[in-house]
Amino acid sequence: MRQTLKFLSTLPLSRLALFSAIFYIHSLCAQDCDLTIRATLLDKETRSPLEGALVYVKGHNTFFAISDSQGAFIIDNLCPKKYHLQISHVGCKEEVFYVSIESDTGITFYLNHKIHGLEGFKLKRKKRKTALESTTLVPNNYANSTNKDLGKLLENISGVGTLKNGNTLSKPIIHGMFGNRLAIVNQGVVHSGQQWGIDHAPEIDPLMAGKITLVKGVAAVEYQSSSLGSLVLLESNKISDEPHIHGEARTYFETNGRSKGVNMQVHQNLKGIKWRLMGTFKNGGDNKTPSYFLKNTGHQQNNTSFQLEKNFGKNFSSDLFISSFDSKMGILRGSHLGNLTDLTQAMHRDVPFYTDSFFSSELTAPSQKVHHVLLKFHSKWILGKRLVLDASFFRQQNHRKEFDVRRGGRSETPALSLRNYTNYWEIKSKSIIGDKWVFKNGIQATEIKNTNLPETGILPLIPDYFTNKFGFFSMVQYSSSETFVNMGGRIDWEDRRVASISRTYPRKLVRYDKEFFSASIHGGVSHMIQENIQIQYNVGLVSRNPEVNELYSFGLHQGVSGIEDGNPNLGHETSMKSSLSLQTEIAKKIGFKVLVYNQNIKNFIFLEPENEFRLSIRGAFPVFKYNQTDAHIYGADAEMNYQLTKSFNLDATYSYLVGTDQTTGNPLIYMPPNNLYLQANYCINKLSSFRNILLKTNLRYVGKQNRYNKGQDFLAPPNAYFLLGFGANTDLFKNNYKMTIFLEVENLLNTIYRDYLNRQRYFADGLGTNVQFGFRILF
Amino acid sequence: MNSNNFIKILIAIPIIVFIISCNDDTSPPPPIIPNEEELITTLNYTLISQSGDDTVVLSFQDLDGDGGNAPKVSTGELLRNTSYNGSITLLNEQESPAENITLEIEEEALEHQFFFSSNSDSLSMQYADQDSLGNPIGLLSTLMTKGPDAAKINIILRHEPDKKGLGVSDGDITNAGGETDIEVSFDITIK
Q: Is B13 on the interface with A (CB under 8 A)?
């Protein structure tokens, strides 16, 4: 035993999160239960043994095994029947295998091992089999992700920021790109809706996705999107072959806002038809800063999804996915304004108007109600060993209603009501040539219908439009043991028909028809210099068509108390982005990765404040007009993982970014300030009946955005701040289920701060201490 | 059905949906122009001297709403050392006949208050009406002039102000909060 431990201490330490080669077996069975499984656990991709995995036999008290350095484990005293083996490993997706035992059995299990942990213990990164710069998260694997939205889940990755309006509306910013310039691909289709709005959060429940991949380089070639580089990909996992109904349930409670929620998912392979049903339900009331409540900042969310998979023979499979996202989100009452005078007044108050001294979960105007439905139908046809065909159809329906405080009982009538229908068709082929080359080609068509509903009694900010897009892409991929190369390009044609209402009275119909042609190319190479040093280089030239809001929006944008004028003469933006990264491992203790990037955007579209105030009966409003300039963004991301001892490690991420308008030399606004995140993790394998106890403490430092010229924004950027956090979670194993309990504290010191990227900072402080706890049960 | 036929059907579904969709119109139908019933296009501030000899109507008219063309703003001449009874009428002149929005303010008197101010010491204004809780509304007011001057009268209508705020019921807007529904300014001369 002593020898074993000595041996273990020389192993890659990050794998020792669940250290020990000991296995625990209790003998509870009668005499004829003397069968033994001798199993080996391997990484699905590399076929290398996985050590320290926890194997749990369901349906029996404390049937445990932990795999040794060869990936081997033994379970004996089993009866001749069918068992569920649940195998979990740090950095892997937990999987359940269904095995039938009749005699002593030898089995090999394969686990997908390419995951970047959320809960600390980020494994040393795997050598990549792609030239794309990417990071993957699996929110479903963790108990403490139920209460987090997409922006929040991604924010600890270097180079990622979150653009917010309050605490409930958030969207990711990657390398300074967001909204129209960042594509979010959900289940294989570009998320469609009203992504142009700075206060429009993507209508996606991240728990419905099995994994979330963030691609930082240039990867947009495969998708019919307007991305200028980065991508967020949400994919659902394949449903397991498990013939019994299994699933999980999780719940949480948060003290700040008294939010609570549940998520349930069940799945089964019913005679070859696999199905999965999921639901998330959450709600909360007013959030609280360290010193006061934020009136009307509650939320409600009800999401469901259903997934079906069926194989028709060995070479043909089909799957169906339907999801519904339904949410209602309050907006701080004191941030709702009539005109510029109100705005100035609201911004210079210590405590917002309408602040109450008590908690309330009432949700009134101003608020947003959004309903998004996604339908996916996909078939895959394997034609021999060298050709795979994929055909998909997607339908998305997005209905957004925004409510303002209005006169005459009209607060119940939306002030904005937009309906968006998007249909998408795609046929892709993947051909494998030799053992090193893969070709992918695809044709894609998108049809968008965006309509304002006239119920508002207000002239719409953006007009009605129909869009048809047709595109083609081609990619080639080369892989050898040390080098991976990706190259590809796409072309798109777009026909957009717009019907808008004139601003002058009497109102008239004004039509604009426009055609666009755009092309993108990208290339990437990844090379392993030595066993432990990998470099990656990505470069892409992408063009983006101006969006409808940039071309034709016209009128008062209530949220910013400004009049926005679209510019129908805008041409497309062209971006050239390159990134270079180096990833290394020092003495098997320190994992280190640094990425530098440079992006030049020609004809960058932005909202320029005009030296003009337009008078209306509501007072004078500043005028903003969409214009084009040349922008330059460069920056660096760094990530480090230091394994001090086998149970103690440190994570650090740092992001640095500079954005400049090259015509005027002014900084670009809404660029994330430099920030640093540190986390210390301590792991205890076992403490009485608790397993996998993880304690962590983290520190977030967000610098002041010093790249700002006076007058570029209503208020100067807020000061730098530090936030301290703490977390703990542990597993409990019971007869037929496994339970994970978590506790997390955000803003432990109740620090008063304001965040530059949160629009609510004009009016109120950031959130005070928030204690979150909850659990997850696997059954 | 054998599995080959099934596969053919599965492939055919997306193609059929595609063809059906392609037959749709490619241009959006003419949008329904919303009925901007909440809109206030016109504010008329009618001042009648208490003797009844002098009537001045200050009018702010913006027919196309926020943005668009510039509004029409009238000017006026007032007599010195005179008390005027002021009344405000709000209209939506996009409707025909024009809709009287004043009634809406009267109905929601608890949630509305006008604020008057001027850059001249020769003008002073007082409220001449009350909501059901005894706080001012401002649809009716009294205006007093002193010596000759050129001045501005500013009128602000706040929705959901804090009428109990310090000084608010005396016409001080500082602690009122709420949203500005109207903010207009008239140039006048006092003869």
A: yes
What would the two tokens of residue A727 be?
């977390």
Q: Write out chain A residues lying below 8 Å of B7, CB-based.
A: 312, 316, 379, 381
Residue A56 has pLDDT above 80, yes or no: no
Residues found in chain A: 779
In a mutational test of the B interface, the residue from A320, A507, A616 whose CB has the highest number of chain B CBs within 10 Å is: A616
Place of tokens 């019921």: B169
User: In this complex, is the C-beta atom of A353 within 8 Å of any C-beta atom belonging to chain B?
Assistant: yes
Contact list in A for residue B179 (CB cut-off 8 A) is 336-338, 342, 405
| CA neighbours closer than 13 Å in the CB half-sphere of residue A355 | 17
Query: Is the pLDDT assigned to residue A45 strictly greater than 70?
Result: no
Q: Nearest chain B residue to A421 by CA: give it.
A: B21
ipTM > 0.85 for the complex: no
Answer yes or no: are the C-beta atoms of A768 and A256 closer than 8 Å: yes
Tens-digit pLDDT profile for residues B140-164:
999 999 989 999 999 999 998 999 9
The alpha helices in A229-278, defined as continuous H runs, are: none
For A434-505, strand residue ranges (E) read: 437-452, 464-479, 483-501
Q: What length does chain B have? A: 191
* Of A10-14, A415-419, B37-41, minimum mean pLDDT range: A10-14
Cα–Cα separations (whole angstroms), residue A737 to A88, A93, A729: 13, 17, 17
Q: How far apart are CA A438 and CA A435, in angstroms?
A: 8
Distance from CA of B102 to the nearest CA of A (A): 11
User: If DSSP codes are grouped into helix, strand and coil, which group holds residue A468?
Assistant: strand
Number of neighbouring beta carbons within 10 Å of residue A726: 14
Q: Kind and range of the H or E element at B9?
A: helix B3-22
Q: How many CA atoms lie within 13 A of A679 on its CB side?
A: 26
- Give per-residue pLDDT as tens, B58-82: 999 988 877 678 889 999 999 999 9
Least confident of A193-197, A447-451, A625-629, A667-671: A193-197
Cβ distance A505 to B21 less than 8 Å, yes or no, reads no
Cβ–Cβ gap A406/B33 under 8 Å: no
Cα A451 to Cα A324, A366, A390, A515, A568, distances in angstroms: 20, 22, 31, 20, 19
DSSP SS3 for A461: coil
Query: What pLDDT does A265 receive?
Result: 92
Residues of A in contact with B37 (CB under 8 A): 457
B181 → chain A, closest CA residue: A618
Q: Do A408 and B182 touch (CB under 8 A)?
A: no
Q: Is the pLDDT of residue A369 over 90?
A: yes
Dig out the tokens for A263 from the structure: 């998520």
User: Looking at CA atoms only, how far is residue B66 from chain A in angstroms?
Assistant: 6
Chain B touched by A497 (CB under 8 Å): yes
> Six-digit token pair at A258?
């008294």
Q: Are strands B42-49 and A770-778 parallel, antiparallel or unpaired?
A: unpaired
A619, A765, A194: which is closest to B40 by C-alpha? A619
| CB proximity B41 to A under 8 Å | yes
Query: How many Å apart are CA A424 and CA A442, to the nearest integer?
Result: 13
A770: which 2 tokens? 């928030």
Q: How many angstroms separate the CA of residue A417 from the nearest CA in chain B?
A: 12
> Which of B5, B25, B33, B113 is most worth mutating to test chain A (most A CB atoms within 10 A of its CB)?
B33
Query: Helix, strand, or coil here: A7?
Result: helix
Cβ separation B18–A445 shorter than 8 A: yes
User: What does the pLDDT look like over A527-563, one tens digit per residue?
Assistant: 888 877 889 999 999 999 999 999 998 877 766 677 8
Contact list, A460 vs chain B (CB under 8 Å)? 31, 34
Closest of A90, A69, A75 to residue A3, by C-alpha? A69
